[in-house]
Amino acid sequence: MPPYTNPPPQGGRGFWSLAAGIDRWTVLVVGLAMLLALPVLTVFLTALQPPGEVWRHLADTVLADYVLNSVTLMIGVGVGTLLIGVPTAWLTATCEFPGRRGFEWALLLPMAIPAYIIAYTYTGLLDFAGPVQTFLRLTFGWTRQDYAFPEIRSLPGAILMLALVLYPYLYLLAQAAFLEQSAAVLEVSRSLGAGSWRRFLTITLPLARPSLIAGMSLVQMEALADYGTVQYFGVSTFTTGIFRVWFGMNDATAAAQLAALLLLFVLTLLVLERLSRRQARFHHTGQRTQRPPRLRLSGWRRWLATGACLLPLLLGFLIPAGQLIVWTWRTAPQVVDDRFLELAGHSLGLAGGAALLILLLALLLGYGQRLRPRPVVRLAVRSAGLGYAAPGTVLAIGVMLPFAAIDRNVDSWAREWLGLSTGLLFSGTLFTLLFAYCARFLPAALHSVEAGLTRIRPSMDDAARALGAEPHGVLWRVHIPILRGSLLTALLLVFVDALKELPATLILRPFNFNTLAVRAFELASDERLADSASFALAIVLAGIGPVILLSRAISRSDHAPLP
Amino acid sequence: MPPFLELTDLDIAYPPRKVIREVSLIMHCAGIGCLLGPSGCGKTTLLRAIAGFEPVQQGLIRLEGVELSRAGWTLPPEQRRIGLMFQDLALFPHLTVADNIAFGLRGWKGSERRARVSDLLRLVELADFAKRYPHQLSGGQQQRVALARALAPRPRLLLLDEPFSSLDVTLREDLAREVRCILLREGTGGLLVSHDQFEAFTFADEIGVLQEGRLRQWDTAYNLYHRPADRVVADFIGQGVLLPGQVGEQGRVNTELGDVDGKPPVGCVAGDDVEILVRPDDVIHDDASPLQVEVAERAFRGAEFLYTLKLPSGARLLCLAPSHHNHAIGQRIGIRLDIDHWVMFRRNRAVSCVEAPPVPAS
Amino acid sequence: MFQASNPRILLSIFGLLTSLLTPPALASGEVNVYSARKEDLIKPLLDDFSKQTGIKVNLVTGKEEALLQRLQSEGVNSPADVLLTSDAGRLAAAQQAGVLQAVQSASLNQNIPAIYRDPDGYWYGLSVRARPIIYARDRVKPKQLSTYEALADPQWKGKLCLRSSDSVYNQSLVAGMIAHHGEAKTEAWARGLVANLARPPKGGDRDQIKAVAAGECDVTLANTYYLGGMISSSDDAEKQAAAQVAVFWPDVQTTGVHVNVSGAGVTAHARQRDNAIKLLEFLASDQAQRWYAEVNSEYPVNPAIPPSATLKSWGEFKADTLNVAKLGELNAAAVKLMDRAGWK
After folding, report:
1. Which of A145, B63, B107, C123 can pair with C91 through a Cys bridge, CB separation 3.0 to 4.6 Å?
2. A276: which residues sit within 8 A by CB, 6+ positions away?
3. Shortest Cα distance from A206 to chain B (angstroms)?
């Protein structure tokens, strides 16, 4: 037993302390986290150059717009997802109304639709030249000047689109939080005379706050990083600005500086969120969390609830998916060939592999944090999650540069000392691509895993050991079963995310390796929306299965509360 | 026959801090013991070391003659046949009551396992709750499940880490008594950790007072109360005051209350400054006594009053008087000392000089 | 539980994955292509090439800048033999970054006119696209139109649709204007365009054409192959929209219609230099040039190959003779200019 180098952590005191090599964990976790933060660090390092004159130009012209639009987008999407996600989550978690069981999982479906796809479909539908407006003009004999139609390709439009496909992330977490709330707390508040509305506002919501904020921050990071939708809608945000400076003005340094600024902004928000959370504890004290009976809605309220759940489902999934089906029906014969299966295989394999790998990493980091809750470990893990807020392309370049540098150095070393060339070890391999996925999607998985781990008290480990379980027995018989729901959630979230991933795949994939998302994007960016529909639909279909699994895992959580 | 549980010169440390120092104790048979002390005294650490979760820096832990821990070697918890019951119970939320209880029965034959589980369910009176999940039970029921689970693999010794502290007082005492009965019936030794002396008195045959990592005394409740080994124990167990005095001739002690006719204390010689431990029941209310003191405070306890009395020097004294002796604050009442168990400390020294060395609990 | 064994196990799994994922040594003789042209717009040609020559071609598509970045960071070990882009400016940038090498080929020089290739042979243009004015047949008479400059005239107030200035096509067009007219004049012109907009810039080229067809605006700028694509679209609405608009060739009296080329170069560290040149020669050959014209409504660079029937129906035009490399040089200036002019 080597001596401790510091006092044993409160939570991890237990047989963990019997570990040989106490700091192996710290080293492993910090090392892994730093590796995963490499792309973001690369961005910051690239940004560490004196600002060029592009900055003056940006400040004089468009920077204020970028900031304003980005902040509006972020807040708008945040509020939008709250407005959609929280009521639907509360209704399906605590009430009984027609269609509730179906909505429970169906409300997750919009998650399977890539944001830029929904943007394309709605543009097709609602644009001036689209069927809706054309129908109005033909029916009423209007011309352009006769009526005002809300413009979908605008900042509010972008907010709506992003909110429609991103709200499921919040819904997922909020629903779990509502399901976990015990009857006792609600009954106490009831006995104190709080009406149902006040109960919701003063007890239910505040108790769910950590989950809501976690969900919101995921959603807002996604919104900030979005490129496809805002670019197509002509909304200049920080992210489009990064590409404009980089591609249009050919100034990679200024682009990195913009990206670094964006990341700093996100970092600040995350730190503020952590600080605000530190002041209150939201854990339930007792183990007794009797689930309250579902509130049976009656009369018009039932139908209002049904409507409230149907609307986001309709707008976020049924309509865009319907449009995709119509397009697919028409174009599939021309665009779908024998390579379609290969594409689907690539997509599923890559997403599946990434999901497993990321889950593994999230578990390692999660356990590392649990066992060594030191500031350095926590900081490292947090910074590993920053990649989520980086626009995919920026992150991909951040992955590409360091690995290419490693390749070059190893190669020149080998040439000098061994007289042979090692060529490219990492660049252009699936490894690099998977690494980029890890750097990007880790936070989604990490959050689930962390939430699950808080449910395993250290005393449970000890109890299991005292009952004769070997260490690995504790893992298999106690940890895995309790974590099962969280792990499944993490796995499926990442799977669906990875299925949709585009920018990193586009830049880092090997030769002759295409995915459904790449194919859909190439056709769509060539303005062949209808032709791209088959591939987009395939992504959606591939995502539906996991989404349904996910919701079943949650609804089966009757005995063991899940994340 | 080797003693049931034997701790010898135990040191446990989280370097650089020593948490447990030179603790030795012997439980001769599989009875029920208790480690008593204020929070932070190291009692939970000691418990965890016995369970095998903490290594020892020095010393030995033996159970029924089998070595469990020594410096540099720790038998893993799962091989010790020691059960554990936690303050937070640590029930597995993903398992039913029956599955929780069966957790430790891996490797048992199916029929035996089922029989054992149903026996235990009956023992803890939860036969109808086998299929429930922990969160569907009340606090007391969860406690019983935790007990049944810990007892299922027939451990030799059950360690209990303040398992009753989350319950209300009446439930706590009932449950403590119940657990005691169950342990005795199962023939399992028990070792409880507590900061509550009444819980300890109810539950345990032998009690150790632990303070700042040192075991002050390991003894019966009676001896801890009446023959505390040192000032710390005297202070921690029960109520009482230390009355200053001086040893006089022939074992008499001069105090503010006059010459007390004590039995000659061993180790104290005439002229020594001492303090005498005076328990409330050592002070007899006697209206006829010439010794009159003022009532400073009083607390009604149903059958009796606990009076706090003020001596002329300002020193205080506690007196337990039957409740028909109703005196107001400020009134002067007569008292006399009637001390059965002489506990005296030399002033400014911790160790007591008592009438006889404490008798080790058999 | 985890502490001793698991990190090691996980690391070895990681190691296993790594070894599985390292690139298979690419077979010798195969040509590796980094292409900024979409797969659909190049793969059929590459397949034809493989069929004819037996040389396998491996393809990665992506955005120009990203591919360029990848090429640069891979350095001498880059597997790429050929870089294909859809923009001459990017080819010039690649040349300047030193990732291309000069190659000479009689057949390339013969098939590709000098204005569409680098004088030293660093890159060769393979297809030409033009960005003319598209107007609504029913509301605009061709004689109202003359030049790009004239679109800034107040007579088009509220009648002009434009794509966002994020579009490289617009950036390239403005760069051409700067080359011809200087920054000050071009900026004033850009301000004029912005003042005439019927709605804020948004959508792609096809969306501009559709907006004109639907009456949201009367004139716009779009690449010819998008209109060609709409005409041959499987979507009836697109076909109808395309039928409602017509092409006007501006500036034919002066500097000529703005054109840009897609092209290719052999990379500096190409392992398969000879095969790479063969591929380039194939892409400039009659067969491939015809494909460009027929399938993607682009103008062949090879003057011997006639444009498609659709393209012919839009009439002949005089193309800008400015060396397309100049467009790349002025691209950054163009973007900043559009920022200043408020062209979103």
Report:
1. C123
2. none
3. 22
